[in-house]
From TrEMBL:
<protein>
    <submittedName>
        <fullName>Dioxygenase</fullName>
    </submittedName>
</protein>
<dbReference type="GO" id="GO:0051213">
    <property type="term" value="F:dioxygenase activity"/>
</dbReference>
<dbReference type="InterPro" id="IPR014436">
    <property type="entry name" value="Extradiol_dOase_DODA"/>
</dbReference>
<dbReference type="InterPro" id="IPR004183">
    <property type="entry name" value="Xdiol_dOase_suB"/>
</dbReference>
<keyword id="KW-0223">Dioxygenase</keyword>
<dbReference type="Pfam" id="PF02900">
    <property type="entry name" value="LigB"/>
</dbReference>
<comment type="similarity">
    <text>Belongs to the DODA-type extradiol aromatic ring-opening dioxygenase family.</text>
</comment>
<keyword id="KW-0560">Oxidoreductase</keyword>
<keyword id="KW-0479">Metal-binding</keyword>
<feature type="domain" description="Extradiol ring-cleavage dioxygenase class III enzyme subunit B">
    <location>
        <begin position="5"/>
        <end position="248"/>
    </location>
</feature>
<keyword id="KW-0862">Zinc</keyword>
Length: 261
């Protein structure tokens, strides 16, 4: 069975303890999808130049954030790993002559476990985390994702976890969506639905408000979008499943790439 790939905005770590339309959507999304054999997550919070893959059979839960309510540091997401799938990822990278790094004892950062906490709260599906490289071009990020496309045809769910508009210095005091954030997401959305990679790969030059939506210090958050998109290169279909703007600018959206649900 072929599963779609997903891009999921993980927002703030507070998403782990919130109840909202978005967390309800994530819960329902997990229920709607056929249960995957494993989940592979390209996470914005693992940014390094060499593609890295978790090889652990058991994962620690990383609380890689500061200044949040103490209860959040007690949350555990005890998903196991899956060395067979991790080794397959490494083999696919090797087949494309892409240097890679198997990594032990890293744990799952909040870009991985926060959305999965709502989608699969029982933590009963194996998880493999894969790094992103925010300094690579969107074309390169897409091409790395494309190397893993065959996993989707083997009942593996691939997720890019990040954010399209993720500028924490521009958060508003209320939840009234800001025009500039909407305009950036709408530009991006039109080209995703058209699969217009020529313009998407130049979003930083062509999209309205691109430097505000994706600041130079936060490029790692949009990178997972292109990795996830690349894993659906054969079908080239994109559909937005959810959109909201808490704090006026923090884009919480979910995109489906490829067929499946």
């Amino acid at each position: 069975m072929t599963l779609p790939a997903l891009f999921i905005a993980h927002g703030s770590p507070l998403l782990s303890v919130e109840s909202s339309d978005y967390t309800q959507f994530l819960n329902q999304l997990g229920e709607r999808l056929p249960a995957p054999k494993a989940i592979v997550v390209f996470t914005a919070h693992w940014d390094c130049p060499v593609p890295s893959v978790t090889m652990d059979e058991k994962h620690q839960t990383l609380h890689d954030f500061y200044g949040y309510p103490s209860a959040m540091y007690n949350i555990q997401y005890p998903a196991v790993g899956q060395t067979e799938i991790a080794n397959e990822i490494c083999a696919l990278f090797s087949r494309s002559n892409l240097p890679y790094q198997p990594v032990m004892r890293r744990g799952l950062d909040h870009g991985v476990w926060v959305p999965l906490l709502h989608m699969y709260p029982e933590a009963n599906i194996p998880v493999i985390a894969v790094s992103v490289d925010s300094l690579r071009s969107p074309q390169e990020q897409y091409d790395i994702g494309r190397m893993l496309e065959q996993l989707r045809h083997d009942h593996v769910l691939i997720i890019g976890s990040g954010g399209t508009v993720h500028n924490l210095r521009m958060l508003a005091q209320d939840d009234e969506p800001q025009d500039w954030a909407i305009e950036f997401d709408d530009w991006l959305g039109e080209r995703l639905q058209q699969w217009n990679t020529r313009e998407l790969f130049q979003y930083d030059k062509k999209a309205p408000h691109a430097r505000t939506a994706v600041p130079s210090y936060g490029m790692e958050h949009i990178a997972p979008l292109f990795y996830a998109m690349g894993t659906a290169d054969m079908s080239r279909t994109a559909r937005r499943l959810f959109q909201s703007y808490p704090h006026g600018t923090l884009s919480l959206n979910c995109w489906q790439f490829g067929d499946g649900i």
